[in-house]
């Protein structure tokens, strides 16, 4: 991620050319700042808003923009305290998207629930990852159609594939983390991502494809390449993007094509079965998996192109993109937080006891949807980690689309204004959370689930992981909040339960440091946890 696609450029162009290109990019940097203010109404508006970290003097925007590359977290924290808490928006300059407006929490609801015609979500999300180059088919991402599939099918029916999911998670952990009682280091984010990919593919395309190493490698590599290439393309001035965008995105899109190719024969076979089943009315028992749900939804769509095998295979790749990296990232952060929290407080034993007892009481004997919903301490631990180690100083790109602009706290915000939410500052606000910098695993657990000595702030805000609110933004907020969070919460808890029940993880004296770049916060891919199989 931190390489911003430079490694990709180096590979495609060679070292000299890649650095030559970087010089062109920096040389045209001032041009891109100018571009951000090309709309004069917008320019005038942004000029008038407070911008923390922008000091008077020549080139004040350029200096503030340079500072934002590494200094966005401090700039947002300052703006949040000074302005957002008083209900006022403020500006953060950005090398990627020009200056953007940070929305104060008091106005989240009003702004983020507005329809797409007034406040756009999809187009800015699309631009955020340079989807024109990294994804290419605008019907695939981000689209209401995809969101519908997640909402209408995956969120409602994942309980019916819970047995297969749990089985694959167990087998994948046994392979990736091993069965040995000797300590060994594993790269947390990457290995959890591999395990999540197998689990997601088990319930989307089933056996044996879910264990096809090439498929998983291409699907994961593509998913990881999108944000990296997206940033690399975004920092280019707009006139260079059509020229260099396809080059920077190429490595990733090659992985995407390779994954589509591997999915295609199964998709074609399943479409044939689906059509012949309709004609013959019977004889074939449709499989119960996400591919089938995708086909059934596509068949009801008025656009026949949605039934093209390639389209469906491409949607399967995007399911990996949506589900796999965020699950690996979230769970690795949870492990880093949890296993660096004070070891003598008995937190691991509490999670283990809860998992053992719940599974023992479950009549089906595996992690059903109902059993997983009883894991309150684990639910709270993951939510607390998503609060404590969230993924952005600001997040959730939106843009004013209404010709007349919109009103935020008495301020008229013109059409075209790019807006985001100060996620990390909210999660670290001591008016909202006591001792916010402390990782307090059972902060969100209901009082009746708490073990003795659960922690000074345990049970202070009982709320399930999937609840989205102004004070907890790990799954987004408003109209475009994550529709996959019900499935994600189940998946994460089954994975975490398997870890505490079957592995010891060595306590870490200090938590591996989060990386921060521009507005992004993420774990280091190389950070490891030390694990051994429990006897
Ligand atoms: C821990 C795992 C996950 C996290 C942290 C996460 C987080 C998020 C967040 C923050 C957003 C909102 C983005 C925005 O408003 O700009 C989002 C959107 C989305 N997520 Fe998730 N997600 C996770 C897992 C999943 C899974 C498993 C699926 C699919 C089954 C999924 C499908 C989607 C889709 C389709 C959207 C776009 C919604 C829209 O544009 O209206 N996510 N996710």
Number of H/I helices: 20
- Report the major sheet: 5 strands, mixed
Instruction: Please state the second-level CATH architecture of the largest domain.
Output: Orthogonal Bundle
Our Rg estimate from Cα atoms comes to 24 Å
Total individual domains: 2
Name of the CATH class of the largest domain: Mainly Alpha
As a percent range, the share of helical residues equals 40-55%
Return the structural class: alpha+beta
Strand arrangement in the largest pleated sheet:
1-2-8-5-3
CATH superfamily of the largest domain: Cytochrome P450
CATH topology of the largest domain: Cytochrome p450
InterPro entries: Cyt_P450, Cyt_P450_E_grp-IV, Cyt_P450_sf
Binding site for heme: 482
Pfam families: p450
Keywords: Heme, Iron, Metal-binding, Monooxygenase, Oxidoreductase
Describe this structure in words.
A 5-stranded mixed beta sheet has the order 1-2-8-5-3. It is built from 20 helices and 12 strands. The two termini are 38 Å apart. 47% of the residues are buried. It folds into 2 domains: 6-36 and 135-391 and 430-470 and 474-533, Cytochrome p450 (Orthogonal Bundle), CATH 1.10.630.10; 37-124 and 394-429, no CATH class. The protein is globular and about 70 Å long. With 535 residues, it is α+β, with helices and mostly antiparallel strands. Protoporphyrin IX containing FE (HEM) is lined by residues 121, 125, 142, 146-147, 150, 154, 322-323, 326-327, 330, 396, 474-476, 480, 482-484, 487-488, 492.
């Amino acid at each position: 991620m931190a390489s911003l696609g430079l490694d990709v450029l180096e590979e495609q162009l060679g070292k000299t050319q890649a650095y030559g290109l970087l010089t062109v990019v920096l040389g045209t940097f001032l041009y891109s700042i100018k571009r951000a203010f090309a709309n004069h109404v917008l320019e005038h508006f942004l000029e008038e808003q407070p911008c923390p970290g922008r000091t008077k003097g020549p080139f004040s925007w350029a200096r503030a923009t340079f500072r934002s590359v590494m200094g966005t977290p401090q700039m947002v924290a300052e703006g949040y305290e000074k302005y957002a808490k008083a209900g006022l928006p403020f500006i953060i300059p950005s090398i990627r998207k020009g200056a953007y407006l940070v929305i104060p929490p008091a106005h989240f609801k009003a702004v983020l629930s507005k329809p797409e015609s007034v406040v756009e979500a999809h187009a800015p999300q699309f631009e955020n990852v340079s989807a024109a180059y990294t994804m290419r088919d605008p019907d695939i991402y981000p689209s209401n159609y995809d969101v519908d599939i997640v909402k209408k099918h995956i969120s409602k029916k994942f309980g019916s594939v819970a047995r297969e999911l749990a089985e694959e998670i167990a087998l994948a952990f046994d392979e990736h983390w091993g069965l040995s009682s000797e300590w060994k280091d594993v790269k947390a984010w990457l290995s959890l991502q591999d395990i999540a990919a197998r689990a997601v593919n088990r319930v989307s395309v089933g056996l044996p494809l879910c264990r096809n190493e090439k498929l998983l490698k291409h699907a994961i590599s593509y998913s990881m390449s999108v944000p990296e290439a997206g940033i690399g393309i975004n920092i280019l001035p707009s006139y260079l993007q059509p020229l260099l965008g396809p080059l920077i995105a190429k490595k990733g899109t090659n992985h995407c094509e390779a994954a589509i190719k591997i999915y295609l024969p199964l998709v074609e076979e399943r479409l044939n079965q689906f059509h012949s089943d309709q004609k013959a009315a019977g004889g074939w028992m449709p499989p119960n998996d996400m591919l089938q749900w995708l086909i059934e939804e596509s068949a009801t769509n008025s656009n026949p192109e949605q039934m093209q095998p390639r389209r469906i295979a491409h949607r399967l790749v995007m399911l990996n993109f949506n589900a796999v990296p965020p699950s690996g990232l979230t769970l690795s952060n949870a492990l880093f937080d949890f296993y660096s929290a004070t070891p003598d407080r008995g937190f691991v034993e509490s999670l283990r006891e809860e998992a053992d007892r719940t599974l023992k009481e479950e009549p089906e004997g595996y992690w059903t949807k109902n059993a997983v919903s009883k894991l309150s301490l684990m639910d709270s631990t993951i939510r607390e980690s998503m609060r404590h180690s969230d993924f952005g100083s600001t997040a959730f790109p939106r843009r004013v689309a209404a010709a007349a602009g919109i009103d935020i706290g008495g301020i008229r915000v013109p059409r075209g204004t790019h807006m985001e939410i100060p996620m990390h500052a909210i999660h670290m606000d001591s008016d909202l959370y006591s001792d916010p910098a402390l990782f307090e695993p059972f902060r969100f657990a209901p009082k009746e689930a708490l073990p003795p000595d659960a922690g000074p702030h345990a049970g202070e805000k009982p709320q399930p992981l999937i609840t989205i609110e102004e004070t907890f933004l790990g799954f987004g907020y408003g109209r475009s909040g994550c529709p996959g969070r019900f499935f994600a919460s189940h998946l994460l808890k089954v994975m975490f339960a398997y870890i505490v029940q079957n592995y010891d993880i060595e306590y870490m004296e200090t938590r591996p440091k989060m990386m921060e770049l521009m507005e992004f916060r993420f774990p280091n891919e190389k950070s490891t946890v030390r694990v051994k199989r429990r006897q």
